[in-house]
Design brief:
globular, about 325 residues, mainly alpha, two-stranded antiparallel ribbon, about 65% helix, binds 3-hydroxybutanoyl-coenzyme A, about 0% strand
Length: about 325
């Protein structure tokens, strides 16, 4: 005879390794490359970390575009340092992803073949110097909001890479704020240029946090694994809260007439984000998607001799060490 107990779903037995993984996550400890991890956790980390690395590398382009035209030697030096920082961030992140068993070549191939995602934000043009200010203030500001919680990501190499990245991002954010502040204290034409850049970058910077929570397929699992600590909408709200007092100091207007604090909801009311635009950019049809990928492909091809020389140098060093041994 079948009893109700027979009909109850049978919970699969967890292996010792799975229990250990779950215990480490529950205790807020770190998972290290040597630890067992579920295949889906490993894949999700490769997905997020490689997309993040690609974003840093593609993200060098909109600003590198201004290095030769920055208005003073000091501004050139700062911008050059910032673009180099982004390259460094990409490299830490590729290294973190490599600890999960994917090679750098595979990730690079995915990027240049147009198969990998990178942040939507880097598919917008930078027509004026004020764009350097708006990118620093808004884009790097959004990056900090999103990435400070990632310093506590459950995967050790990712969390540790994020600590250094976030320190540098705060410098980037301040330099952008300072560019805008200087322009806002300048001539009417400079103020207009700064406001125009803020108008163009505000909405795309809100899209950096990803789709709304009810349309975010990865958030719930990622938060259960403590990779992400906050949802996309929570971080977007936090970012807006950070911008409002800073916009007042700058004297710029955030381009959303509906933006106001709603005491009852404990959140900001705002106009709808144009999610069609977001999906178009993700589908490769943003204002500069093809230009960005084309430039990355060219840089990859032009850099082939550097990779070959580095590999040959490493081979000679290894041979010399082997001979001594
Ligand atoms: N641009 C491009 N793709 C985006 C995106 C965006 N702004 N927001 C979301 N997506 C993609 C996701 O990657 C996911 O695609 P996939 O399933 O094919 O991988 C899909 O849209 C659905 O989104 P989810 O919300 O489910 O995805 P996540 O839970 O991964 O959240 C995220 C998206 C918030 C971007 C998260 O992955 C994250 O925090 N990543 C780390 C930070 C990062 O990559 N930042 C990119 C900016 S780089 C940067 O800031 C450099 C600095 O110098 C300015």
């Amino acid at each position: 005879m079948t009893t109700p107990a027979d009909l109850a779903p049978v919970e699969p037995e967890l292996s010792e390794a799975e229990k250990q993984f779950n215990d480490l996550i529950a205790a807020d400890s770190r998972i290290e490359p040597r630890d067992w991890m579920p295949e889906s956790y490993r894949k999700s980390l490769i997905r997020q970390i490689s997309q993040h690395a690609h974003s840093e590398i593609i993200g060098m382009q909109p600003e590198a575009n201004w290095i030769t035209r920055a208005p003073s030697l000091k501004r050139k030096a700062i911008l050059m340092a910032k673009v180099q920082d982004e390259a460094g961030h990409g490299l830490y992140l590729y290294s973190a992803a490599q600890t999960l068993g994917i090679s750098r070549e595979e990730m690079t191939d995915q990027l240049i073949a147009g198969k990998a995602k990178y942040s939507s934000i880097f598919n917008y043009p930078t027509p004026t110097w004020a764009d350097m200010g708006a990118i620093g203030w808004l884009v790097d500001g959004a990056a900090i909001c999103n990435q400070v919680p990632l310093c506590r990501a459950s995967y050790g190499p990712y969390g540790r890479a994020m600590v250094r990245i976030c320190k540098e991002e705060s410098f980037h954010q301040r330099q952008g704020f300072e560019i805008l502040l200087e322009l806002m204290q300048g001539t009417p034409a400079q103020r207009e240029m700064a406001q125009d850049a803020v108008n163009r970058w505000y909405w795309p910077s809100l899209m950096m946090f990803g789709p709304p929570d009810d349309e975010s397929p990865n958030s719930a699992q990622s938060m259960a694994w403590k990779i992400k600590r906050f949802s996309n909408d929570e971080l977007r709200q936090r970012f807006i809260g950070m911008l409002i007092p800073q916009a007042e100091v700058l004297g710029v207007t955030l381009p959303d007439p509906k933006l106001r604090w709603n005491e009852e909801k404990g959140a900001y009311d705002m106009s709808d984000i144009d999610w069609d635009e977001f999906h178009e950019v993700l589908a490769g049809r943003g204002p500069t998607n093809s230009q960005r990928l084309q430039r990355r492909r060219e840089a990859h091809e032009e850099g082939a001799w550097v990779r070959e020389a580095a590999a040959e140098y490493a081979r000679k060093q290894a041979a010399a060490r082997a001979e001594v041994a």
